[in-house]
Amino acid sequence: MDTHNSALTIDTHNSALTIDTHNSALTIDTSNSALTIDTNTSNSALTIDTSNSALTIDTSNSALTIDTSNSALTIDTNNSALTIDTSNSALTIEPVIVTSNSALTIDTSNSALTIDTSNSALTIDTSNSALTIDTSNSALTIDTSNSALTIDTNNSALTINTSNSALTIDTSNSALTIEPVIVPSL
Fold it and tell me: Which of 103, 110, 150, 173 has its CA 20 to 30 A from that of 141?
């Protein structure tokens, strides 16, 4: 899907959107334009299944907004790779706007999740909601070189489960902030 210098809107009100790229590659390139996926309804589901393939979302010089108000967002990358490249742009995931009253699940079983926000800012705001990152039997790498990583879990729960896997947070030349401050129990 190539929407150079234009806008791409996928509106699935009261219906289901399934993008299935078995054994193939899906590339969404919105250079210099805006990509909006709106599933704003209580009876709609967005499923992106890239089993045995690669999913690349490139929003260079543009904005990526995923709005799943009152619905569920599932990204399933079994045995494949998920890459979100936001060079010179912004990626914002805010349950207040994006996943209000719903759950965000990123499941990378037997695969790798890489979020690279070099020279940009990554904000994950789960106020009054729950964020779960489960990387069982896989690797989670968050590389925020020359940028800032902020995880704000006001009035909610943050769970990072890395059973039988590795968790690496590399914030070279940047800042890592987790609020509220975690006070270990004695």
Answer: 103
pTM score = 0.48
Residue whose pair of structure tokens reads 């009054």 in the numeric block: 128
Q: Encode pLDDT of 89-111 as tens digits.
A: 666 554 433 445 555 666 666 66
* Side-chain half-sphere exposure of 150, counting CA atoms within 13 A: 15
Tell me how far the alpha carbon of residue 82 is from its chain's centroid. 9
CA 95/CA 129 separation, integer angstroms: 7
- 28-32 long-range contacts, CB within 8 A, separation 24+: 28/1, 28/56, 28/57, 28/58, 29/1, 29/2, 29/3, 29/4, 29/58, 30/3, 30/58, 30/59, 30/62, 30/64, 31/4, 31/58, 31/60, 31/61, 31/62, 32/4, 32/5, 32/60, 32/61, 32/62
Domain boundaries, the chain: 7-179
**Longest alpha-carbon distance in the chain:** 57
Token duo for residue 108: 């990378």
